[in-house]
Each structure stands twice: as C-alpha cells, then as structure tokens.
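User: My collaborator sent over this chain with a note saying "see what the structure looks like." That's all I know about it. Can you take a look?
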Amino acid sequence: MAMKRFFGFTLALAFASGLALAQPRVVINEFAYDDTGTDDLEFIELYNADTVPVDITGWIVNCGDQLTGDNNPDFVIGDDDGDGIPDRTVILQPGQFYVIGTPTLNTRCGGCVNQLINPGSAGVLENDNEWIALIISGETRTVVDAVAYEVNKSPLANWAPADIIPQLGGGLWGNYQSLEESATTDDAFMTIGRWRDGYDTNVNGRDFGHFRPTPGASNNLPALTSRVCLNFDNYSVGNIPAEFIGSYRNPRVIAPTQADNTAATGFNPNAIPASPSGGKAMMVRDWAGGGNVAIANSLFENGKAGYDLYIYIDPAAPPATRVETWMIGLLGSPESLHNHPLISNSANG
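Assistant: Without extra context I'll predict from the sequence alone. Here is the result:
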C-alpha cells in the first residue's frame, strides 16, 4: 500500500510539472511601428493559436533596441493606467486577438484596441534594430514569442537579448514605413503580419509579410485552389490591379512602350520593350526612391503554386553607391522588407 501511495504521488508531480512546462501558443501576430508624420497608428496584435484559453494577465510586451540603457516602453497585459500592475484579468480564447494600440487607431478601426498606448512622440515603437518580445515574468523569465525588425542596422548579437534570438531566425532585414493612404498619391498603408494567423516557424523573414491593416481581425487571405490567369489588358493604364497590393506604393498597370514621365510619380518613366505576349503589364515602382514590392491578395496552399511570367529588368547599372535586387517567391521566401538581402544569413528564412 505504501508503494502504491508513493507511486501515485510521483505521477501527480510529473503531471503537474508537465502542465507547468507547457509553452502557450500565443504569438505576436501583426504590428505597425512607423507611419507617416506623427506615429499615431502604431499597434501590436497578439493571437492565441492554441486550442485552449490562455490567461495572459500580467504578461509583458517588451520593446527594446539595446542590451543596456534601453529606454523603450514595456506593456503589462491588463494594465490600463500605466502603473505596471494589471487592472483586470485577460483570458485569451482560442483564435482570439488582443490589440495594444493608439487612440487614433482605435477610432479608425471602430474600437478594435483592447489596451491603449500613447502615440508617436512618447516613443512607443521605435525604428532601427528593434525587438518586440512577449514575456511571462516570474521566478524565471519565459520568452513566448519575439520579432525583430530593421536588423540590417547591426548584428542581432550586438543589441538583442540572447533568450529571444532563437525566436527570430535572423529577424526582419529591411526598413519599412506604413504610409497613410491619400487620394492624391498611390501610398499604400500596410502593416507587417503573419502570412497565416499563428503561423510560426521561429523565422521572422519567413513567417511575416506585408498586409492591409487588420488589427483585431484575421490576417488570413483567401486561398486559391485553381489556376488563375492574370490579364492586365482588362485594366486601363494607371489602374491598381485588384489582385495585388503594394508596400510603399501600389503597383500600377502600364503600356510598356509608352513612357509616362510627366511627373515624378509617373508610373512608367521610360519606355521599355513590349512584352513577348503583347499588351499591358504591371509596374512595381516606388517613385520616391527606395524599394517596393507587390503582394498577391490571395495565397496558394497545399504546396501547389506556380508562375508563368515575363519580367523586364532594366539593364542600366545603378549608381556606384547603390545596390539593386529583385526577387520573386512564395510565402516569405523572398524577404519583402526592402533592403538588399543578407544572402549569407537567414534574412530570407
């Protein structure tokens, strides 16, 4: 009998330990860290990718950019008055979102923000080699999820905590600004989000891409299950193709042999050779300089995807101080965040 009681006690300890060691599947699902002018549209969205409710009360959203002397703000989940102590319990149900965002964003999205933060000048989310980490604090610090961005500015080991680096896979390489859309320009207001809600391989460059802002709602794009043939001849010159969205600027339909250089924002500043198939084409260009990308508004799934494309690459060499690259790929295989990719590392996943 004594042996049976001892055996039962051992099982109870093992079971309890198993519960304590289980890692909650809550992720940083989408974020915006820089927008036009005063940064008043910043937000961080969390998502419960688990099959059970998770109590995230008191968890810390840790933001930083240096190992010592960091002055970036942290956010305690459930803390509404900024004193670092939760004012309410926050239970995140399976498939539920939790948005920490600015008052301006909350107004624009119709009340999608669950926890308010101060905008812009208060230094909410900064630029230049930054991280966002979701932390369970206590006797031991547990990193639940993390993302790093603008990692092109300095090697991760110089500024990122060692315990978040396994979650990054090299981080997000390039720079990005969420331009506010305008009726007079083709600015594209975009955020950085996971290709699928909760999709997490611990390689930021593979897991995240550009999206239309969806704070408090799903990132998931409709899945294409059959062959799609894009015909740009169905559009007028200057139209934005409905099948794509841009990063800095929206892509535009052009007539390749017809130059449109009447203004700095011309869609096709120089006439180029006609497509082998004839007809119109799509131009992916940031007329203000820098880089640009066009992202399809649908996803291919189940490992079945293919492209049949004619692509024109300008043979003129860039200035000696600049580098020009182009990439085509699926689901994060090209790093979509602009700067010259770090081919020798994991910037592209």
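A starting point for your reply to your collaborator: The longest strand covers residues 142-149.
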